[in-house]
Predict the 3D structure of the following.
Amino acid sequence: MTAGDAQTPKLRVDAASKVYATASGDLLALDRCSLDVRANEIVSIVGPSGCGKTTLLWSMSGLHGLSGGEILLDGTPIRGPHPDIGLVFQEANLLPWRDLDANIRFPFEIKRIKPDNPWIDHLLQRVGLEGFGGKFPRELSGGMQQRAAMVRALSLRPSVLLMDEPFGALDSFTREEMNRLVEEIWLETQTTIVFITHSIEEAIFLSDRVVVLSGRPGRVAREFSVPFERPRSMEVMATKEVFDLTNAIKMEIVGGRKGAEPQAKRQRERTN
Ligand SMILES: Nc1ncnc2c1ncn2[C@@H]1O[C@H](COP(=O)(O)OP(=O)(O)OP(=O)(O)O)[C@@H](O)[C@H]1O
């Protein structure tokens, strides 16, 4: 398989393992985790708290090195932050002393490249932030800050967008709005998206596939495809098929959490 080959996944996680050195010994966060993400897919990653979701996403971004295995983008191993990969975190991480325009143009300054103003203006209009360029982060609601963070991440036209629980701190109404926005942006840009969430409903609404990680150390326990038509209306989300899928994913996560207890104990024993 080579880059550009139709068979090459956009992202391939190949037996990824990650050990953190902690004061009480080594902690195995990911254990030979493998997963493919195809181009233009939206894949959500769910799993019990502490199972390694963020570790996996950061490894995909190149911000974290792995202890074993590798992660490939278009067939090439990721060795560090990559211009083709954008990131959105739970915190919008806007610089408080810069207005919205200056925040969004910040990555261009760092890279010393000319901002793509027509594209940025389009994105700002797309997320409903046109006219807010002169506002400072403290003047924006949490939802608006996250919209700005999405614009900042998309402004460089990444082919992959990694989102780490981006809407976890928002109220449920704003969260639903943001989910619809992600879907709309995806329908327009076809950016490959990997999305971490604790909300199964959010994962189903957004994704082509939902990947459940086992309890720590994280491995792929099971993948669920989400076959519902897009855009996903409230009617679709209220069907029995969605209800059944939600329950199946929930059962898998609860099962993984139970299974993780002896594993975690074994890990403690190994590291003590
Ligand atoms: N920098 C670090 N140093 C040491 N241990 C870490 C570090 N980062 C994460 N861990 C540990 O690794 C494990 C996996 O953490 P991670 O944040 O990836 O899980 P998660 O599934 O994203 O958690 P949550 O659902 O609670 O956000 C946890 O036990 C966590 O305490």
